[in-house]
Amino acid sequence: MAAHTSQSVAKAAGGDGEDPVAARGRSRRTDTATARNDGGVKRALATHWYAWAMITPVVLVLGVIIGWPLARGIYLSLTDANERNVGRTIGANHIEATYTFVGLDNYAAVLADPVFLQRLVWTVVWTVLCVSITFTLGLALANMLNREFRGRAAYRMALILPWAVPGFVSVFAWRFLFNRDSGILNKILDGGGISAIPWLDDPTWAKFSVVAVNVWLGVPFMMVALLGGLQSIPGELYEAAEMDGATAWQRFRHITLPGLRTVSMTVILLSTIWTFNMFPVIFLLTRGGPGDSTEILVTQAFREAFVSSPRDFAGSATWGVLILALLMIFALVYRRSLRKQGEVW
Fold it and tell me: How far is CA 88 from CA 69, 73, 141, in A?
């Protein structure tokens, strides 16, 4: 009875039925953990102050170069800004902006437009084709160059050459090769008795052409990255598998592919983002034509801002924000799928 009475008194003293001693102990542990976290942050800043001082200018520059245009683009996508109602200076006269806030009307208009679905479908097809073909060719070339043979260094230099040439130079060179009347490819076909192919004048051949050029530009990066991954796989694994009687395909499937998983995840993600936004190849090679058969989302955004009349800045910004949203969704889904497979990214 006395014990029961003392427990009742303790509960009453705790107010909410909690032991005051336990409550004080928990409060003391919380304060200690908070102080420890604060001390850890201070120690980290004191220890790595030089690193923080080095990256701060970079962060500020990136914030100005990327953060401000991004914020400005999101804001314009919520307005009806175009060439006629934006602020501008003509001679000594300054005309104030008269565009208004329209909310999500631009997004509703773009998503309801059949053109958006057409551009999205071709952009996805273009991206999947380019990334899959580039990865396959890069992996095959990396496996070939990972072996010892005479002249390997020369072959490596030759295969990396497309990566060293500026992209616009490469595209203009391919445009000359694809010329229907005087292009080298059609000259070769004509010499073999085959009629000229309208590489850039037919919608189907134009799509084939832009995919081929983008693959040619992307294979060197994929090859170099995968070659580095192959060279990090211990050779003892292949020797042990060969002694156990594993075939070449079994060694490739059970050693090479798992060993390249981390590198492959990274290069596939980067290649997907780059290809999804690959403006130079499409614009410089076909300008989205013939007609609009090779237009992708990013070239459509450019057309809204610089080609259409009047130039629709709000519409272009809307297309740009939607492209960013699609890539962010893809990155999140990609990351979640990798985490389900036990990969950390």
Answer: 18, 18, 53
**DSSP secondary structure code for residue 195 in this structure:** P
Looking up tokens 């936004």 gives: 277
C-alpha 216/C-alpha 223 separation (Å) is 11
The dihedral region occupied by 103, where left means phi > 0, alpha psi between -120 and 50, and beta the remainder, is left
CA 325, CA 334: separation in Å to the nearest integer?
A: 14
CA distance 136 to 274: 17
If we measure between CA atoms, which residue out of 187, 190, 191 comes closest to residue 176?
187
Asked whether the beta carbons of 177 and 167 are under 8 A apart, the reply is no
Residue 79's DSSP bridge partners are: 101
**Element at 339 (helix H, strand E):** helix 313-340
Residue 279 identity (one-letter amino acid): F
Going 295 to 299 to 300 to 303, the CA torsion angle's sign is negative
Sign of CA dihedral 274, 232, 142, 340: negative
Task: Give per-10-residue mean pLDDT for the chain (345 aa).
Answer: 43 45 47 52 74 86 87 93 85 84 94 94 96 95 86 80 84 90 88 88 94 93 92 89 89 90 90 92 91 93 90 93 94 84 61
Give which of 304, 306, 302 is closest to 315, Cα–Cα: 304
| Signed CA dihedral, 325, 328, 332, 338: sign only | positive
**Cα distance between the two ends of the chain:** 60
Question: How many helices (DSSP H) and strands (DSSP E) are in the chain?
Answer: 17, 2
Dmax (CA) for the chain in angstroms is 112
User: What is the pTM assigned to this prediction?
Assistant: 0.79
Angstrom CA distances, 118 to 92, 110, 226, stand at: 44, 12, 34
- Pairwise CA distance, residues 263 & 334, whole Å: 15
- Residues written for the chain: 345
